[in-house]
Write a structure and sequence with these properties.
The complex is a heterodimer of chains A (370) and B (330). Chain A is of the alpha+beta class and 370 residues long. Chain A has one domain (48-341): Cytochrome-c3 Hydrogenase, chain B (Orthogonal Bundle). Chain A has helices spanning 7-10, 52-56, 65-71, 76-91, 97-125, 131-150, 170-195, 198-204, 212-217, 223-227, 234-237, 258-282, 334-339, 342-345, 351-361, 365-369, and strands at residues 12-16, 28-34, 37-44, 159-160, 163-164, 301-308, 313-320, 328-332, 349-350. In chain A, the strands form three sheets. Chain A has a four-stranded antiparallel beta sheet. In chain A, strands 6-7-8 form a three-stranded antiparallel beta sheet. A two-stranded antiparallel sheet of chain A has the order 4-5. Chain B has 330 residues and is mainly alpha-helical. Chain B has one domain. Chain B contains 14 helices and no strands. Classes of the chains: A alpha+beta (370), B mainly alpha (330). The interface between A and B is medium-sized, with 28 and 25 residues.
Chain lengths: 370, 330
């Protein structure tokens, strides 16, 4: 750009957020602009800081479980999964296989619901208002299924140390099966409405592409990293629960542009459906929970546990001093690292593209601020 | 004596002007309310939901309630803005739209005045809108508003060229600028068959002129919150809203007059009203297409929008115009 030589003369600041239709919550971006071009984008965080990690130090092991769902309310079950996995690893508890299968099925449903919400919101950022109604229609089915099992629609807190809170019934299996068929039939609609749309393709192709090198430097994980061609998925690289027994692919892209990220997320939903199908097929009979003391003391020491959320790698790290509350609980959330990519990839980009790229990153602000 | 009889001391022309302006204003409000309702209803159906349902049967009174609400709202003038220009902008947007109705031929008999240069007149009045948008964006003292205003000006300047060029090729064929003459010159074969390229270019450019999605960049919600009318509330906002819907009506009615044979159509049982019924049906069909497009496509990017105009629409309309000119000469 020619005018980059005399930035002092032309540039001005534009404050975007914390109240803005497309900053996905209370994110604030401080943009240095030259006309409609963004010279520099600086995310300002902290508008939704709730001292979640500090709260972990004053609550019992079980008491912190509901907080995990509030970190990322869009994939609350996966956050529960990581936390109970961590406590089980430290306490040496082995959950029964039925519980593990229920966890995988509900987690994958949660992942699909998160991706569906992203799909709708992303297209809304692009100015298409209709797809969000279609995706919310599908998401509603998932929420109904999960409400039937867990009693909640958003922050489930359904998993317990040593299993799940309550068993699933025949109706859950039936409705999940019919949902899998339903969503499979809906993908052609999305393809016709979005993926083959000329305006959509022109807007997302070759925009904000980044290399896998850069992604790894910033600690980017999840669909964003996979869009650059790195098949890094915790479900495969550090398998937990019963994922090793299930057959699924890790969709990857090539260039990491917005279209690749979009395709990776859409294909991930298809793979999640495959996982759900297989897990329903194998769902064993038996107990859904082993006995675990409610107010247990964990042995001295530290441990980590990672899971793959809808946005990337979530790692819980905790240090125990042998009492019934954690000494330190650290949560490594994916959106924080993913968002740190924004200033790098949005340089000298039009404002409309910045909004779209922010949608591509799919940040959940309460999870960044914690 | 009738009500008009009591006023017989006034010159008849004055009474006629008063009554006509009353009807025109009533129509502006009615059209905007109808379009607003239809837009929300159609949007609902496209999105597999019922749309407004609460106020009145199937929500038909929704827009009346909204209108009353907007009337009752305070007009907040932002600090350090320009209060005079801020108040002027919505009026400038709304006032000219009534004037353009003078030349719209609803049917053979129903037209206020058939000006010789009716087409130029209506287009001139329509392009007045952009001044009010620029003033609104500037006076708001808000960067988002200013972005919206600047985008609107660039967009309108660019898209007026292909719009006029495509209309010109029709004028070359019909050899008149009067709105009534343009309808009468078409006869049995409508201009949309003779000039399909011009019709397409005009319709796309017309959508861009009225800032309808996918060309709604001046008010791009996800980028600029609400663009040039971010700071406007109450009646000031609804003046922009009324102006936008009335402009949509003009764009559609110019398309009907120039390309779709105006009021002509097979006779209907109500002989006296055949013309106006056909005219309205055609206009509202085109408006339906505009709503349909809006709720289907994502928004284009600003540079793509301008490139599309300068690289495709203007060359195509120029070629179309030249071919037409040669054909007319032959």
């Amino acid at each position: 750009m020619e005018s980059a030589n005399n930035i002092e003369k032309h540039s001005f600041f534009l404050n975007m957020g914390p109240q803005h239709p497309s900053t996905h919550g209370v994110l604030r971006l401080l943009l240095e602009m030259d006309g409609e071009y963004v010279l520099d984008a600086e995310p300002v965080l902290g508008y939704c800081h709730r001292i979640q990690e500090k709260m972990g130090e004053s609550r019992t092991w079980n008491g912190f479980l509901p907080n995990t769902g509030r970190l990322d309310y869009l994939s609350a079950l996966i956050y529960n999964h990581g936390y109970v996995g961590l406590i089980e690893r430290m306490a040496g508890i082995e959950p029964p296989p039925r519980a593990e299968y229920i966890r995988v099925i509900t987690s994958e449903l949660n992942r699909i619901s998160s991706h569906l919400l992203w799909l709708g919101a992303y297209l809304m950022d692009l100015g298409a208002f209709t797809p969000i109604m279609y995706t919310f229609d599908d998401r509603e089915q998932i929420l109904d299924i999960l409400e039937h099992v867990t009693g909640a629609r958003l922050t489930y807190s359904y998993f317990r140390v040593g299993g799940v809170a309550c068993d699933v019934d025949e109706k859950f299996v039936e409705s999940t099966r019919s949902f899998v068929t339903r969503l499979r039939n809906r993908f052609p609609i999305y393809e016709a409405l979005v993926t083959t749309n000329v305006i959509f393709l022109k807007r997302v192709k070759e925009i904000a592409s980044f290399s896998s090198d850069m992604a790894m430097r910033y600690g980017v994980t999840g669909p964003l990293l996979r869009a650059t061609g790195v098949p890094y998925d915790i479900r495969r690289s550090e398998p937990y629960s019963v994922y090793p027994e299930l057959d699924f692919e890790i969709p990857v892209g090539e260039t990491g542009d917005c279209l690749d990220v979009y395709m990776v997320r859409v294909r991930e939903m298809e793979q999640s459906l495959r996982i759900i199908e297989q897990a329903l097929e194998r769902l064993p009979e038996g107990p859904f929970r082993t006995k675990a003391t409610r107010r247990m003391k964990l042995p001295r020491g530290d441990a980590t546990f990672s899971v793959e959320t809808a946005r990337g790698e979530l790692t819980y790290y905790l240090v125990s001093d042998g009492t019934d509350v954690p000494y330190r609980l650290k949560v490594r959330t994916p959106s924080f690292s993913n968002l740190s990519l924004l200033p790098e990839i949005s340089r000298e980009m039009l404002l409309s593209n910045l909004v779209m790229v922010l949608g591509t990153l799919d940040p959940v602000i309460p999870e960044i601020d914690r | 004596m009738t009500a008009v009889g009591y006023l017989s001391f006034l010159p008849p022309e004055m009474i006629r002007i008063a009554v006509t302006s009353l009807i025109v204003m009533a129509f502006v409000f009615f059209n905007s309310m109808l379009l607003g309702y239809l837009e929300r209803k159609f949007a609902g159906w496209f999105q597999r939901r019922p749309g407004p349902m609460e106020v009145g049967p199937h929500g038909i009174l929704q827009l009346i309630v909204d209108g009353v609400k907007l009337l009752g709202k305070q007009i907040v003038i932002p600090r350090e803005s320009s209060p005079f220009l801020f108040r002027l902008a919505p009026l400038l947007a709304f006032m000219p739209v009534g004037i353009a109705f003078i030349v719209v031929p609803f049917s053979e008999a129903l037209q206020v005045r058939d000006l010789d240069s009716g087409l130029i007149f209506i287009i001139a009045i329509m392009s007045f809108n952009i001044i009010s948008i620029l003033i609104a964006g500037w006076a708001s003292n808000n960067k988002y508003s200013l972005f919206g205003a600047i985008r609107a000006v660039a967009q309108n300047v660019a898209y007026e060229i292909p719009m006029l060029l495509s209309l010109l090729s029709v004028v070359l064929i019909d050899n008149t600028l009067s709105m009534r003459g343009l309808v009468q010159a078409q006869g049995a074969i409508w201009n949309v068959i003779v000039q399909p390229v011009a019709f397409l270019i005009y319709f796309v450019a017309g959508m861009a002129e009225t800032h309808r999605a996918p060309f709604d960049l001046p008010e791009a919600e996800s980028e600029l919150t609400a663009g040039f009318h971010t700071e406007f509330s109450g009646m000031a906002f609804s003046f922009f809203f009324l102006a936008e819907y009335t402009h949509m009506f003009f764009v559609a009615s110019i398309a009907v007059v120039l390309f779709l044979g105006g009021w002509s159509g097979p006779p209907l049982p109500w002989i006296d009203y055949t013309g106006i019924v056909w005219f309205m049906l055609k206009v509202y069909f085109l408006l339906f297409v505009m709503i349909w497009v809006r709720w289907t496509f994502p928004r284009v990017r600003f540079d793509q929008l301008l490139n599309f105009c300068w690289m495709y629409m203007i060359p195509f309309s120029l070629v179309n115009l030249m071919v037409t000119a040669v054909m007319v000469k032959l």
